[in-house]
Amino acid sequence: MSTFTVSNLSVGRGGKQVIDDLSFTLQSGRITALLGPNGAGKSSLVLAIAGVLPVASGRVEIDGQVVSGQSPEIVRAAGIAAVPEGHRVLSGLSVEDNLQAAGFQQSAADAAKAVDEAYAIFPELAERKKQRAGSMSGGQQQMLALGQGLVARPKFILADEMSLGLAPLIVKRLMAVLSRLAAQGTGILLIEQFTALALKEAHDAHVLSRGRFSFSGSPEILRQNPDILHKAYLA
């Protein structure tokens, strides 16, 4: 069992503090939904954890190893895979090259095995190995973005707005993959605009508003009390 801990984390962006003294824990095999309005700081939190944005104060640990303030490569090697919003892929490279690039920290044999596993999960990608990633549909690019995360064999996945702009059928497919990964022991932080979908899949939930949690607890409480979410979106 792995543990991922964020302690008293504060993050600034564009001259403003966007994450304010935030603390929470993720656990292996559990999906934690992170909900909140646009501008609440959700994506900034993911980027800071991933080593893309600097941390003003506080710390991020995975199994006791402090990764806050480290490079994205070190964070990834520690077992944290961020899947940013907007299905970001290396658009000029082929599907295969995108997946192989994600396994650069592994041995050639392990990386090849991980790529094959990604193809098994997303057969659509296997059919397009040589296709330029940027020429695929948004849904296929999002599959590739998640596939890149899987190739790194992470202990934890930070999935930021995977459903953005995608057809419901694709969203359902991606959510099923995350649920299966959690059942196999991966910890998931799920940032999702479709709150009902996120709460259905999650074991734990946080509502972020203006850089702080306005709620932390059971998803069932949010399902039964929609006013809690409503107030956060109006804050």
TrEMBL record:
Taxonomic source organism: Rhizobium sullae (Rhizobium hedysari)
GO BP annotations, alphabetical order: L-amino acid transport
Signal peptide: none
MF-aspect GO terms: ATP binding; ATP hydrolysis activity; branched-chain amino acid transmembrane transporter activity
Pfam families tied to this protein: ABC_tran
Keyword Plastid on entry: no
Keyword NADP: no
Family of the protein in this entry: Belongs to the ABC transporter superfamily.
Full protein name: Branched-chain amino acid transport system ATP-binding protein
Keyword entries, A-Z: Amino-acid transport, ATP-binding, Nucleotide-binding, Transport
PANTHER family hit by this protein: HIGH-AFFINITY BRANCHED-CHAIN AMINO ACID TRANSPORT ATP-BINDING PROTEIN LIVF
Ranges for domain ABC transporter: 4-235
